[in-house]
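Troubleshooting: if your tokenizer reports a length mismatch, compare against these two reference records.
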Amino acid sequence: MHVFDKSRIDAVNAALATGRPLLVRGEPGIGKSQLARATAKLLGRAYIPFVVTSHTESRDLMWRFDAISRLAHAQLGAALGGDKDNLRRELALDNFIAPGPLWWAFDWNGARSQAARYLPSSHCDDEAKQVGNYLQPPQSDGGDHKQGAVVLIDEIDKAEMDIPNGLLEVLGKRCFLPEGFTERVYVEGVPPLIIITTNEERAMPDAFLRRCLALHLALPSLPGEREKFQEILVERGGHHLPDLDKTLLESAACLVAEDRIIAQNQHHRPLPGQAEYIDLLHAIHELAPGNPEAQQKKLEQVARYVVSKRRSDQG
């Protein structure tokens, strides 16, 4: 469950109104990624997540060229001694291009057609290949691509700067040209909402920032705003697990606040915060369901493993 506060609602509405990507900044575990999925569910849109890694290239967000499958197909065709003209047609680059998340977001039907054409999908059953189900983003929340799409580009700061730099043109012009194609892919229908997250491990290029709106998610600072910090945790804990006793929610928030202050003073990262708090509540809820007294006893026992991840006093 994601809790939309006013700043998140305003930021999403502004991004929808301007057509700009929304860059969501903040520490790990504060709810940046969940914002994208929750927004897609709220709007009834298709949800298309993509997690960036250190090996991600900017084109992976638009398309992926399967060079290994193409080479294998060429070697197999040569070994079998098939018709050369037919083999040449089969080895066309566009038969080995898989649509990426932005392709699905820009032109779902076009991406679906390309997914069905994608030659390495030949090992799938005929129905899956014909309709492009092999690569189609699953919609577990019932999102409808006809209502538009919400794309999550998660943890963009994990990659080198060629990722944000490589997105400048596609974000600005809302089109791109896949390798081996002669026609560009344009936005068809409702423009997508693109949400990009960063843990701010690396600074983003200025040109990239100018093309985005920015939302900074942060918990109140400690120790100065401890009361507000704990109030926010209790409120969000109540949304996630409404059957837990409020006294337990408050005790758990107090433990997380104490550990966060200790981690800050010892310069430990990541700081315990909202994610650890919710995990702690879920653990207690599962270990002592429906028993407030037992849950309170379990709190400190479990907290040392869920919250105190950098501490040496777990024995």
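Reference record two:
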Amino acid sequence: MDLRCGVDLIEVERIKKAVDKWGQRLLYRIFTRTEIEFARARRNFYQHLAGRFAAKEAIIKSLGKGRISWREMEIVNNAEGEPRVRFTSEGRINKTVAISISHTKDYAIAQAIAYEQTHLSSPQIRFA
């Protein structure tokens, strides 16, 4: 079984400065409308954007650079509030990706584990 891990850590201030400089152009280049609306609905807008940015970077690392673009994936929360990745390019990605996101006032970190789900091996990956 092919199992790959990606991790990304980013300063929240770096995201804030980039958004302040590039505005909507940057937001819609990296994030989907759903991701932007999710972050805007939260008290700490930039922390949530940074968390989703870190998750996308971690996913790119776990899949291998050049395999997917920023907007071909969307970070959403399930009914329990756990982050999940939804791929918008049906069929291009043949792996399951589990993600975890955490953030503080200053930093956001995310981890992604990509694996192929086969009938012979179905790992149950859960993040605490």
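Descriptive notes for reference record two:
- Residues 3-115 form a domain with the Ribosomal Protein L22; Chain A fold (CATH 3.90.470.20).
- The longest strand covers residues 3-11.
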